[in-house]
Specification:
It is a single chain. The chain is of the alpha+beta class. It is 52% helix and 16% strand. The protein has a four-stranded mixed β-sheet. Strands 9-8-12-13 form a four-stranded antiparallel β-sheet. A two-stranded antiparallel sheet has the order 1-4.
Amino acid sequence: MVIKNLLVSIILVLLVSSCSSGGRKSRQKLRTQFKTGKFKDALKTIQKSKYYQEKNETLLKLMELGMIHHAAGNYYQSVMVLNKASSLVKKLYTQRLSQKMKKVIANDNYDIFYGASYERSLIHFYLALNHYLIWQRGWYEAYSPDPKKQIPQKNLTPSERNTEILAARAEIVAWDSFLSTLKNEKLGESVFKNDMMAKTFGGLIHEAIGLRDDQQIALQLYKDAKDLLLKNYNGYKTFNKKFKKFKKDFKKLPKMKLSDVKAKYVAPTSYQKSLEDFLNYKILSLTKQIRPRDFKKLVKIYSPSKEILKQVKKNKKQHNVSLVLQEGMIPKKIGDKKYFGLGKALNDPKSGAAARIGAAVLTVFAANKLGLLPPPGSYNPSGSYVGIKMGEATVAGAAISFELPKVLNKPVRNHVKLEIYNPAGKLVDTRPVALINPLGDIAEEAISEEASSAYLRVGSRLALKHAAAIAASFATYKAMKGGNRGNDFLAKNAAVLQYLGVSKGIEASEKADTRFWSTLPGNLRLSSFYLPKGDYLFKLRVTHGAKAPPGSGRLISLGPVKIEKEDQVKLINFRTFQ
């Protein structure tokens, strides 16, 4: 009966296994179109692809549509789509808490896409950014919700424009609420549970509104960002050379002196130093403006570099230019092979194998005859630095392999500076563009966290299936061998062939869930500064290495920029794939 049920399950899985591969092909096509700026083609891919029309992929579809519209400059349409995504996230979160998942035959690929923690967080970022950009330009774009109804472009009234900037601020507040819930769920864990963009970009939004209370909130957000950098973002390799040690001993750190934590667990990279400079500049500039009596005290507390202190003292007015740089494409999510010990499953009464044959006999048979031995050094099931409690799932003796998701992350190499030219082509200023969110690092950690929690659940389920297959192969082996030792070779080969056939079906049933918000950037960067009225040309100088020679690297033009009002912040939003 066990074998019969197993084979029925495998047949059902094979009938639907094309969904997973189809999804991967659709995502790859979408990424290629997006990267080459073919946004209309990207929209058609989502509209025509059967994969994106599946009910389980609704959230992913909304995320991708929201990003495509944003990149195409359709900020109003992006808001409408991402508002739906935000509402769906809340609904799915409630469902996930109130009912247990039923995963018997199929794997996570056939479950609803809930989005990783960082993906759900970034919905708030793009909503706030879209509202700001609509407020700045003062109009809604024309669009067609259906072929028979064209909605024309609309210029906003002053009241409607004000609604947009207030909506951006409201989204920052909603973002903070989301992160507070996430933080409470992940207390004591070195995983993604807070977002540096929520603090830094949130600060820029509050500054842009310009009211006294908003300036006070912005100042606090920048201070919170300093705290977040130390306590959480030091767990990312882009910011901390000692990130492995920091993550390993994370639970010890709250009990230690701050000075000891910095000395033993933090070795800042050039990216951390650049982010520190950005935050120090924002904190001291705002303090000088709204709390001048606290200025000297904060200079002593934060110890800014001489260059940052010079800039703060030089600028007598609040910043009026912000740059949001969305760089590259987020790394792919792939399936990564892991191993799981069979000992527990072979002893499990549910498999029925031990009762009929004996766990010890089957273990020896699996290891010696079927060759189910894990490669040396394969114990670490996550392949990452997230702490995983899996001591009981050893791979001693016989073991099976299966896939878990993994992010193909690569180290950040680029350093970016903004060069500002006058209409005559003369360089008038240079500003750093701080790396705020290395999304490759963040995705790698978040997905590794999910994989670690799925390891026991998926491994145990698969082990039971394999235990039944091993028992069936053992029965074939014994039947063919009979009492003649000379038949051992043929019996062994028959058993192996039978097991390989069944195990291929089992393997097809557990491909890793590689769904992800594929059009996100690889890095998010910010810059903020003051410029007098006038016409300028903005260019990005991108180099490899923090100490690249002056004038080296490549230049990317952002085009002409006109500063018309010194008391209103102009936001430049730019996406580069170079």
